[in-house]
Structure formats: C-alpha cells, structure tokens
Amino acid sequence: MEISIIRKPELVVAIDFGSTYTGYAWQWRADFLNNRSNVQFNNNWGSGALQLHKTSTCILLEAKEKYGMEYKIDSFGQMAEDIYKTLCKENESEIPGKWYFFKRFKHLLYLKGFHKEIQAEDQIGQHVPLLDVVAKLIEALKNHFIENLKQKGQNVEEDKILWVLTVPAIWSNEAKAFMRQAAEMSGIKKKNLLLALEPEAAAIYCIHLPNEQRANMNELGTPGQVFLTADLGGLTADLSAIKVLEDGLLEEICLAQGELAGGQNVNDAFFQVCHDSFEGDSWKKTFGKAKPTEMMDMEDDFEQKKVKIGVTDPRAENIALKVPFAVRKEIEKNTIRLKSTAGTDQKLKLKDDELLFNSTFIRNILFKETCETICNIMKRELKQDGLRECKTIVLVGGFAESPIAVQHIRKMVEESFTEIKVVVPTSPFQAVLKGAVLFGHDPMIFRSRISRFTYGIGTNSLFNEKIHDAKKKWLNSEDKKFYCKDILSVHVEKGQSVILKEQLGRHKYHPMYKDQKSVNFSIFSSTNVPKKTAGSEEPENIMYTTDEGCRKIGAVEVQSPNTSRGTDRNLLVTMVYGGTELSVIVNDETSGNEINAEIRFSNM
What is the pTM (predicted TM-score) of this model? Predict the structure, then answer.
C-alpha cells in the first residue's frame, strides 16, 4: 500500500514485467527534485536484444540437484534465449530435467480461477510453479540492476531503495497479491515495494512531459482536463480514465476497462492464417514436430519484421519467414500444399524454404481486427457519464509504437467521436516505466480511485423475518438468540470513488461467544451494487455472501485475548482501498490496539 512504504526513498527502481518484453528504469531522489524527466534506463541486455531499453520476457533456470536448491537462475532475457538455443544445438538430450526455459508466461495471471499453485510450462513441456518462475525473473532483474549500479561506482543501502512493480489495472486482487509475494520471494522487503497500475503510470508520465510535447498532445495535463490513457501492450489493452485536479493531483473517474487484446493478437492471427492456408491437417501435424528453437526463431523473426510495417516503403514490407526443417522436408515431398483457393495467394506464397506474406493483408486485416477490438473497448469506456468531457485519448505501450496500429485506432475513434483527438507521446514504449518511477517518488499523486468491486465482511445479524432469508436462520446456543448468517456487511461499493488514505466504512463487530479469543473476518468481493431494502426497520443494504457474483477473496484473523467483557468487545474494521491494493485496519477497543492487517487471499 502507498500508506506503508518508505518515504522519500534515495533511489526508485521500477520493473515493468511485460508479456513480451521486460525492463527496468531508475531515478535518484536528487534528480527527481531537480529534473523529473531525467529517468535512466538499462540499455545493455547483451547482443541480439530486440529492444533498446527492454529485453525478452524469458528466463533460463538450472535444475536443483547441482545446487541443493529448487532452481538456480542461469540467465534471463535475450541472453537466456541465446544460451538456451546453444544448449539445444550442442546436446538436446541433456535439456530435460536439467534446463528449464520459460518465455511469455504472463498470460497465466489472467486465467479464471487463478491460484498460487498454477504451473508454468517451458518450451518442451516441463512444469515449474509460476510463482517460482516470476520470483526468479524479478530476482534476476533486481540483481542485474544492483550489479549495474556497482559497475558505475554507485552505492546505496538497499533499505533506501523503493522498488516499483507495474501491474495491469484490470488484474484481480489475487493476481496483484501474487506479484507482491513473488517480489518478496526475490528478496525485496514489504516496506520497499510498491505496485503501480500500468495505465496510471503512463498517465503520470504524460502529464510530466515537457510543455512543448504536452501542447502537441491537446494541452495534456491542464487542470480540469479529462483524458483516457490506453496502455497497449503485447497481451492487453488496459485503460484508465483520468481527471487532472486544480492542485495537479490526479483522480480516476470511471471504472478501469480492459481486455486481452494487443500485439500478440496479431502474432496469433498470423500463425492461424499459416495453418488455415494449407490443405488438410498435414501442416499442423508437421508443424508440431518442429524443434522448439525453430519455432522461437520464427516467432522472433515475425516480431522483428512486424514492427517495420508502416515505417518503411510498402515494397520493403513483405514478410519472408524461413519454415522449420521438418516442414521443409514435407514441402519437398509435396505432402504439404497450399490451398488452391483464390484468396490464399493474396495472403501468402510458398517459395523455396520460405513463406512470403503479403504485407497489405497483414496491415489491412490482421492489424485491423486487433485494433477494432481495442476501439470497441474504448467506445464502451467513452459512453460512461464521467467521460463526457473527455477530448483526448493517449496511446502508450509497445503496440502504440506501430504506426499502422495508431493509424487504425485514430481513424476508428475519430469517426465515432469527432471531438476526441488520439495522441501518442514520442516514446510510448517508455511511458509505463518512466511513469512508474515518478509514481514511486510521489505515490500520493492519485487523490482517488474507483473501486472495481463491492467489498465487505461476511457476518451475522439478529434475524428479522421481514427482510432476512428464512433458510439462513440459525440459533446461537449461548445467548439463545436467532441470527441470520451469510450477511455481507458492505464497506466499499462498486463504482465508489475512494480517496487515498481515507478510512471508509468503519463498521463495528463483536465476537459471537464470550470466551472467543480470536475473530476471523472473511472478506468478499461482489460484482453487484447493493440495493436498498424496502422497509425502514433495517436501513442497511442487504446482500448475502452466497449471492451470484459474490466470492470470498481472503480472510483476516484478529486476536482479542482479553475476554473479561464477554461479547461486549468492539472490533472496529475499516477497509482502505485508495491505493493499488486492498488493506484492512482493525481497532480493538478493549485493548486500544490498532492492527494494520493484511488480507490473506483465498487463492494464495
């Protein structure tokens, strides 16, 4: 939480763990005070890195037997990919059980029913807990930065470093807690760790751009202005609706929207076209026999060539990809053939050992389909009441580097909303990292956020037959009174604007039994908004924890050892949701103790 981290850190380091690329940036406190734009990036990832300030999201682990531990980090990023390919070429038979190479595994955190034990699958089908893989990647990045700092002759006490880890705004609280746990497993202390929502970090970056750039972006950052930030990454389109307040602080004004739609969609559609353009299922079967390293080369080759579309002369845009050896052999035997339909030759051709793709098809079909999905998300967001004053959409992230993507999105949006201007900063790929660094120095820049869910505590109420469900009636054998179980005591409502640090919805609870020395508070989230009950006897909104859309997300156990007052012990519970995570504060009136309790998420 923003309210419990170290203040005025000497150094802020932000890590952007992306679906395709990963990197870090940093800034000293003195530089932040003197020149906020002076954020430094690491540009040395080893030879072959596809991006200057980021490297591939991948890691190579060595098995535990040799080191007496679960896994040892061998390498990460582009270097790990190069080493793994070399290992496969030198002695492929020694890979299983000894080497584990993981690439592009972030999508697992979006799965429904996500839980801590979920497994990540490597290039050859071996499995390792996702938590271990993510923790090792964060550890590798952390160690890389510390070593980088030492080589520059700079030193800082690790307790004075604030690490900022970026996460999508649309992630569940469980996924955010998972990333926090992974970061702590990497050696980062709780007080030195802050999560930053990616589209919000990008918004912070944009409002701190030089005046000339902001003027060219529809006067972005002007007090009173409402704008929409769209972080377009490899896997997601993550939106955030922001208002700039008179004092320069920011306010989220609508529920965050987003979907799985990004640059990877173009890649997936591209390879699907490959499969669909050949006769029968021979292509798919043979493709499945290709070596993992050949597939990695083909994917990387497409990724490199894809970004050139729209940048160079159209005649230089045709994409030629070398097919895997197993596929080439079948092509030579004529057991794999392109379909003879009229549309196939407008998409791709087969020549020698290469697939030649028509860039016009990729530009006008594959890119356009993904951009339409993104625009539909934006259109839904723009229909919300809070965005009636919006005149600017800011595109950031890796997919916003593509001129074709920007062109499609700009055209689609401005056709439907003529008064809205779509703008892109000069370095959209750096926006999240730079903004996350600035957020680490000034975590109170967001005055308020919108709650994505209704949050509350599962409790019991004295049974009222006029308003309570008879099926939930039960008798307390100690006080001989009837209670209604499964009551959701609402603390924060979905769509509610919650001010940072403000303790909202303080509710009073008490033990059910006289000798009870601890109370377990079950915490629930609901996709529903509480409805007012018809009667005046119970003014509170009635919701049950068993309602559709309501689920348990965690629990907090509070000790109350002094039982001298029996059940007449008040426990005051407050939820603090103004930050990027959910926290609970419990005050035991009997002892006067206040506990800042962490939520123990059910799936964790």
Answer: 0.85
